[in-house]
Amino acid sequence: PLQMERIYHQISRCDLFISIGTSGVVYPAASFLAGAKAAGSYTVCLNKEPIPQTAFIDEFIEGKATEIVPKFFKV
């Protein structure tokens, strides 16, 4: 992927990291939750099923993205 250095830099600076609709097995994106948690971010996963990175997730909300994302962001 393009801009990986920039992506990791932004992840290291965020206070809140939200992962939406991922299998959690495709790298390098699968490492983003761990990076955000290591940087001190509060991490949220909105997904239809649990993913392998549960140790790095502060809040997990299960459901279809089309249903839970609007509710989460109160859209």
Beta-strand segment tally: 3
| Average residue pLDDT | 95
Radius of gyration: 12 Å
Major beta sheet summary: 3 strands, parallel
Global structural class: alpha/beta
Overall geometry: globular
N-to-C span: 30 Å
**Share of β-strand residues:** 15-25%
For the biggest β-sheet, the strand order reads 1-2-3
Helix content: 25-40%
Number of helical stretches of at least 4 residues: 3
Folded structure, characterized:
With 75 residues, this protein is an alpha/beta fold. The chain has three helices and three strands; from the N terminus they run αβαββα. β1, α2 (32-38) and β2 (42-47) form a beta-alpha-beta unit. The radius of gyration is 12 Å and the shape is globular.
Quick structural summary:
With 75 residues, the protein is an alpha/beta fold. It is built from 3 helices and 3 strands, in the order H-E-H-E-E-H. Strand 1 (16-20), helix 2 (32-38) and strand 2 form a beta-alpha-beta unit.
Task: Note the main attributes of this structure.
globular, 3-stranded parallel beta sheet, 20% strand, 75 residues, alpha/beta, 3 strands
Please specify the SSE layout and strand pairing.
Elements: H1 4-13, E1 16-20, H2 32-38, E2 42-47, E3 59-62, H3 65-73
Parallel strand pairs: 1-2, 2-3
Helix pairs in contact: 1-2
